Each structure stands twice: as structure tokens, then as C-alpha cells.
User: What shape does this take?
Amino acid sequence: MANVSVYNMDGQSVGTIDLADAIFGVEVNEHLLHKARVTILSNNRQGTQKQKTRAEVSGGGRKPWRQKGTGNARQGSIRAPQWKGGGVVFAAVPRDYDMDMNKREKRAALKSALTNCVKDNNLIVIDEIKLNEIKTKNFKKVLDNLKLNKSLVVLDNNDKNVVISARNIPSVKTSGVNELNVYDILKYEKVLITKNAVKNVEEVYK
Assistant: This one.
């Protein structure tokens, strides 16, 4: 069972916490980590781009000039791909990029990602994050105290003051326990998680 330090908002160590091996100490499955990341990125694609083929571009129903005798290369339509305003050869069409993972795979991948965080000392536990007002400067001060930059902040509740204060920092993303995903954990350098959120993660993903 891993044991990590717990910090307060001033960056001072105020104790330790034991992390459940069932969540934070599993055998890392690199294949599932890769599959989960690709699945999330694929599912975020809209697939709505559309271009017209030569059959869909209006006009061009008549030969621009006769077949022989002009000295020009033969042409059948001014909407052929080589013409300006013509159709696209391999036109993009709307498609569905969705991929799927079953529930067991998703959980195993998430546990692998969290285990990697602990092994690489990238999981920072804080006793609580509480702001009296919505102010980005105050939240940035907390990050500076903990020497954090590009971070995923996992909260045990949807604290409006914290969420909105963090929203203006491009290198920071807030997440609830139920919104945790492999892509965000891998994307950010550090995962800052509240003490209560650790307990919730252990309960939700056990």
C-alpha cells in the first residue's frame, strides 16, 4: 500500500495518506492505456467535414470544347478535378469515428493511469481546496505554493469558486471524480487531488 504526503494550500506537509492498492497499485497495462487514449480522442472527433466530388459540383454538363481539332487536351467537363472550381478527387464525407471500450477495460485503464502517477511521484494530495471568492489569482497562488504548473485538479465536489477560478489558467483543468479519464491523467504533468476525492475514487472505482 502506497503512502503519500498530504499538503495544505500553503504547500506545507500536514500528514500522510494510504492509497488503496486496488486502485493506485495495480499492474500497469500499457495496451489498455493506449487503447483508452485513442478511444477518447476518436470519440471527440466530430466527423462532419464534407467536400464535393465532381458529380456533386453544379455545372459542367457540357464538354468545354470539341474532342478533336482544337490543339487542346481533351476535356469532358469543367468540373473535373484538374479544373479550378472542380470537384475533389477523394472527397471527405461525414463519418462516425466512435470507438468503444467495455466497462472493465475502462476501469483497468484508469487504474493503470493512476498507478503510473503514484510511481512517478506525479500524484499530489491536498487536504482541501477552499476559496472564499472567485479569483484566479488566489487559485494560482495555491498552485505556486505546491510548485505546480500543468496540472489536472480532481475535486470531491463541484466547488463553484474553485472551478471558475481555475478556468482562466490554460495549463490547468478541473475534474470531478466521476469525470476522471485516462487521457487527462496522461496529458497533464501532475494530478492534484483532494483528500476526500481520493476516498471517493477508491469507492467509485473499486
User: Anything to note?
Assistant: Residues 2-45+98-204 form a domain with the Ribosomal Protein L4; Chain: A; fold (CATH 3.40.1370.10). The chain is about 35% helix and 15% strand. The first strand starts at residue 2 and ends at 7. Strands lie at 2-7, 13-19, 123-126, 151-155, 172-176, 190-194.
